Amino acid sequence: MTDTARFEQAQKDVKTLDSKPSNDDLLFLYAHFKQGSTGDVTGKRPGMLDMVGRAKYDAWAKLKGLGADEAKQKYIDKPQGVRVREPVTMAIVAQASRIRRSLQDFFCSNWALPSCASPARFR
After folding, report:
1. Please, what's the b/e burial string for 87-121 (b: 16 or more CB within 10 A of its CB; e: otherwise)?
2. d(C-alpha 16, C-alpha 91), whole Å
3. pLDDT tier at 113 (50, 70, 90 boundaries)?
4. 3-81 has which fold?
5. Domain boundaries, the chain
6. Cα distance between residue 30 and residue 61, in whole Å
7. 0.70 cut: is pTM over it?
């Protein structure tokens, strides 16, 4: 399999991961993909309010001078070692919902809060 074919296969593999990788891994993949496919970073750094754009730009800018072949190889190697986030289980969601209802019941029974008049708003 050629490097180009392996690079394209790695792109497909990244898109079909079982769960979303950590932000650091996503930035690594983005930066190495851009460096391997486009080369050194171009354009202006995004503004202060575009935090995601800035993080992506900065991750790509750190690779300035890295060869396309080396960037592609690191991109190809990374999906095999990507750390995935732990999925939020339904048990955790249910527990959080019970805690929220308990707190609402506590506050509504001890204080006359305006939000207690319409409990459906919290459910």
Report:
1. eeeeeeeeeeeeeeeeebeeeeeeeeeeeeeeeee
2. 26
3. low
4. Acyl-CoA Binding Protein (1.20.80)
5. 3-81, 90-122
6. 11
7. no
